[in-house]
């Protein structure tokens, strides 16, 4: 839980991200060469002896100012365009499909199982390493963009439309995904945890996720119901079936709270419940400022038991 997730397009852990990182380095080196030569020529032109030498002027203006940048920029453009078909190649059949919807300001996640069933989760995605995964992306309100910098390129999430993204993670680890399209007040706090694991661990995760919750003998379950949490949140295995907010069936096992706003600890959860709008301004969830300490503790215990 303590390892902080990587969020860098230059620390690639997936096939698409490696190409994008290479593209960046090639572009940076190309731009560096152009800059060095053009500035070098400009400095030379300022100080070179024999200011009215037409031959030298022609060389500087045409060679250094036009021909050289044209050649290098054309080469870089060709390199970049040649990479596009590879990045846009459709996903092979039979891979894991994960549906993600952007919602102000969190992520609704559905895993599609082989038997056609789907399981809902939120704000956290597990992926099997070395396997192509296809994301089907949409939005429930405004335009968001789904971006896991360490794994690949960003893709817009557009209401009423489905966009697709294929990722091929090749290094186990925890990566941070972000919303990359300004979508309102809490845009910067719309993040998610992406955990890349082995095939066996991924299946173990899906099996666990498919199980309904079973901690309803906990006193916090009564608080959850009395406080009306079920109007917005679902917990599979109970009557709580709200869909306005994130599904909480396995909330206790998640790494973070509030779409990767805070690490998932009991103290942070108390803050989230009582000072919601100080933690994440603009969020739709009401703050429960007046809840008694004992009730709050029961509620936090119950949510933590949702493993
Ligand atoms: Cu969602 Cu920015």
Automatic annotation (TrEMBL):
Transmembrane segments: 20-47, 59-82
Cross-referenced InterPro entries: CcO_II, CcO_II-like_C, Copper_CuA, Cupredoxin, CuRO_CcO_Caa3_II, Cyt_c-like_dom, Cyt_c-like_dom_sf, Cyt_c_oxidase_su2
Full protein name: Cytochrome aa3 subunit 2
Membrane topology: Multi-pass membrane protein
GO biological process: ATP synthesis coupled electron transport
A Gene Ontology cellular-component term: membrane
One Pfam family named in its UniProt record: COX2
Single GO molecular function: copper ion binding
Cytochrome oxidase subunit II copper A binding domain: residues covered: 93-208
Listed PANTHER family: CYTOCHROME C OXIDASE SUBUNIT 2 (PTHR22888:SF9), CYTOCHROME C OXIDASE, SUBUNIT II (PTHR22888)
Family according to the record: Belongs to the cytochrome c oxidase subunit 2 family.
Function: Subunits I and II form the functional core of the enzyme complex. Electrons originating in cytochrome c are transferred via heme a and Cu(A) to the binuclear center formed by heme a3 and Cu(B).
